[in-house]
Amino acid sequence: MHPDADIAAAARKARSGKPPLLALVHDAAAAASAGAAARAPDAGLPGPDEEGPLYVARRKIYPQRVKGTYRTIKWAVLLVTLAIYYGLPFVRWDRGPAAPDQAVLVDFPNRRFYFFFIEIWPQEVYYLTGLLILAAMTLFLMNAIAGRVWCGYLCPQTVWTDLFQSIERWLEGDRREHLQRDQQRWTINRLTRSACKHFLWLMVAWWTGGAWVLYFADAPTLVKELATFQAPLVAYMWIGVLTFTTYALAGHMREQVCLYMCPWPRIQAALTDEYALNVTYRYDRGEPRGSVKKSAALRAQRKPAGDCVDCYQCVYVCPTGVDIRNGPNLGCIQCGLCIDACDAIMARIGRPPRLIAYDTDLNIKRRQSGQPPQVRIVRMRTIFYAAIIAIVGAVMLYTLATRQDEGISVIHDRNPLFVRLSDGELRNGFTVRILNKSLERRSFALTVDGLPDLDLKVVGDTVTTGRTAIVSVGPDQTYELRALVSTHSPLPPAVSVPLTFTITDTNSGRRSSAADHFRGP
Amino acid sequence: MLEKPTDQAPEVDAVTGTFTTGHSWDGIRELNTPLPRWWLWLFYATIIWSVGYWVVYPSWPLLSSYTAGALRWHSRDAVVADIDSLKAQRGPMVARLAAASLQEIVSDPVLLDFARAQGRSAFAENCAPCHGAGGGGGRGYPNLNDDDWIWGGTLDEIAQTIRHGVRSGDADARQGAAMPAFGRDGVLKRTDIDNVAEYVRSLSGLPTTKADLAAGAKIFADNCAVCHGETGKGKRELGAPNLSDPIWLYGADHPAIVNGIWNGRGGVMPAWVGRLDDVTIKALAVYVHSLGGGEK
Question: CA angle A113-A118-A119, nearest 5°?
Answer without folding.
Answer: 40
